[in-house]
Amino acid sequence: MTASQSPVSHFGNHVQQQQAVWAQALQAEQFDAALIHSGSQLYSFLDDYHYPFRANPHFLAWLPLARHDESVLIIRPDQPPVLYYFQPDDYWYLPPADPESWWGDFFDVRPVRETGQWRSAIPEGRVAYVGDAPALNDCQELNPPRLLNRLHLARTVKTPYEQACLRSAAATAARAHRAAAEAFRDGQSEFAIHQAYLHAAQQEDADLPYGSIVALNEHGAVLHYQQHERIAPHTHRSFLIDAGATCHGYCSDITRSYSASPGAFADLISAMDALQLRLCDGMRAGVDYRALHLEAHAGIAQLLVDSGLIRCDVEQALSTGLSSVFFPHGLGHFLGLQTHDVAGLLADADGTEIARPDGHPFLRLTRVLEAGNVVTVEPGLYFIDSLLNRWRAGPDAALIHWPAVEELRPYGGIRIEDDVLVTDAQPENMSRDAFAAL
Ligand SMILES: [Mn+2]
After folding, report:
1. Pick from 104, 134, 155: which residue ends a domain?
2. pTM of the full predicted structure?
3. What residues have a C-beta under 5 A from ligand 1, the ion?
4. Are residues 304 and 378 in the same domain?
5. pLDDT value at position 4?
6. Domain range enclosing 77
7. Same domain, 121 and 178
8. What is the mean pLDDT of the chain?
9. Ligand 1 mean position, distance from CA 85 (Å)
């Protein structure tokens, strides 16, 4: 990684930009300051073990401290940010290391040994509290919706630091995807493939942005398949893996589909790959993401016609809802500190939602794209029993060529997903670039 590609070299500018965004949002909502809590360890019922820690994304937007609970940031429009950095004197757990200069130099860092020490430093005036730590429960003005909406809208445009983090997260995931594909070709179980992925990524489950979907054969038809089967199936026909990685809290979200052998399913993957690349090329400033989602439906309907899976034209596949039987989710979403990043449907600070197209209830992004947005592009085509059975019971059952569907059902489904940065010119496909650089 060269200096200009590394997140580190962009960090100072990022903090400056955060300061400007927060100052503007606080002033617009008439707050004097904000207090951002990184989060608390949450314990399981009647136990002293906690759930995997997930830091408050509003805290992560300022600091690369994904594992730091009980830290607090204080933001004031006209003063440098103050970090109450939680470093307990603890012999049960390893306390956080001293701040590193690459990020610490931009903050007024005050180490604290006890939780809640920040309470003695609550700023004067009207304070907005941001976070979900139980310690904030008694605070007035907790997560003010209009303030959060303003911040969420700002988060849709990524700074150069954030773009560098997202690129790095894509590179880690691409390396791990390659190891997973090798484990698939090697005939391994879902569990073993998952372990190969983690090892190649050098991340553990708690570091990943979401639970990896590692699906062999029919399991590819379960959209959020959550098991990792310990025993390898008798035959490996197909493999769908939807898995990401993180860098300083920023996520990648990448899906690849494989066929073990040539044939109708492999051809369908190739056709989907070409369609997906065409859709990625459409991720441009000024384009309504809803139109791209509908374009994906038309493209998938064309695939269904060309492959003989349906017996009607594209227009009828769209008007009857048949394309949604095979592609029942949205084309994609914003990506950032959250896998399904904030403000995908948000129009303004009031929280007005931009409507989804009729008949597309699961689309997570309805905004017009801007330079600096990072989106996923993930068209899919699946053989899902429950949706197929419902269609078979309806008036248009004959539009599906059932023998062709029956032949491909054991392969589960296909999804191809990349992470794409919208620019002022050509979109930057961070995932494809990462695979190409392996
Ligand atoms: Mn996704």
Report:
1. 155
2. 0.97
3. 253, 376
4. yes
5. 60
6. 7-155
7. no
8. 97
9. 33
CA of 250 to the centre of ligand 1 (A): 14
At what angle are helices 7-28 and 145-155 packed, to 10 degrees? 150
Kindly give the distance from the C-alpha atom of residue 338 to the centroid of ligand 1, in angstroms, as a whole number.
11
Instruction: Evaluate whether residue 1 is within a structural domain.
Output: no
User: How are strands ordered across the β-sheet holding 374-377?
Assistant: 374-377, 418-421, 428-429
State the total domains in the chain: 2
Instruction: Please give the distance, rounded to the nearest whole angstrom, from the Cα atom of residue 87 to the centre of ligand 1.
Output: 35
For residue 395, being part of any structural domain is answered with yes
Residue 23 alpha carbon to ligand 1 centre in Å: 32
Alpha carbon of 432 to ligand 1 centroid (Å):
15
Residue where a domain stops, chosen among 109, 130, 155: 155
Q: Is residue 401 part of a domain?
A: yes
Q: For position 2, what pLDDT does the model report?
A: 55
Specify the CATH number for the domain of residue 26. 3.40.350.10
Same domain, 207 and 332: yes
**Which tens digits make up the pLDDT trace of 128-176?**
999 999 999 999 999 999 999 999 999 999 999 999 999 999 999 999 9
